[in-house]
Amino acid sequence: MVEQVIHAKETFERSLGSLFTSAFTAGLEIGISFFVILSAFALLNDVLPSRYAMVLSSLLYPIGFIIVVIGQSLLFTEQTSLLSLPVLNKIEPLHKLLRLWGIVIAGNIVGGCLFAALIIGLGLHMHLFTDHAIDAYAEHILGFEWWVIFGSAVLAGWMMGVAAWLVTSARDTLSRIVLVSIITGSIGFLGLHHSIVGNIEVFSALLYGNTVSLWHYLIFLVVVLVGNTVGGVVFVAVLKNRTFLFEIERVKEQAAEARAEVDRRRF
């Protein structure tokens, strides 16, 4: 917990340009998952029933997440819970957290939309998939009541928060890859709603498909962002913070004693 708070506080101290660039990069990188999934779905859909093709192709979900996590780019759902720890421990103010979230979300969405516009369009021209495959995947994401999407997003945010917690506790790259693969692979297999990947999936259908309107896209994005945030903050950050609160208090006391000792020596 102490390491998580220190790492999160370092993120608070980064420049706005650095934060946005890292988040923008994550938005581009996470799109690789959808590009590969869509290509696999189009291929499998020719030989398997659509439902099975969808599930099997979703097992490729971890690819983009592995790139983001190992490359240490800023992804909103991964960072949501951990970045709230300094605020929960009254080290950083709430308004700085909200500003940080806003920058990361903006960077992720802009990067994802650019990926959808360029790379998904490229895939269409390469005949890796069709607009019907894009629409089918959008329907797979949007074909629920809003409260179902919200609940699914809460669970996905919870799982991503757990993934971030476990990954930062792992000490080697292979362990991190395995953890990310298991958890994000489960999210893909279950069809849970992830805001940043979902942004690319639905925005691609808005651009190149025939079933998604701008209003549907915006409503979906808001609902999933809120759900992911609730899942990450409430079920991971708050509970973990309460579990290890004594460690944080001990560190605060040690820091206060160290500052007092420095002051005594100075005078």
TrEMBL record:
**In what way does this protein cross or attach to the membrane?**
Multi-pass membrane protein
Task: State the source organism's domain of life.
Answer: Bacteria
Under InterPro entries, the record lists: Aquaporin-like, For/NO2_transpt
Tell me where it mainly resides.
membrane
UniProt entry keywords in alphabetical sequence: Membrane, Transmembrane, Transmembrane helix
TM ranges are 19-43, 55-76, 97-126, 146-167, 174-194, 214-239
Compartment(s) where it occurs, according to its Swiss-Prot or TrEMBL record: Membrane
UniProt KW Transmembrane keyword? yes
Any Pfam family from its record, for instance, is Form_Nir_trans
This protein's name: Formate/nitrite transporter FocA, FNT family
- What does UniProt list as this organism's lineage? Bacteria, Pseudomonadati, Pseudomonadota, Gammaproteobacteria, Moraxellales
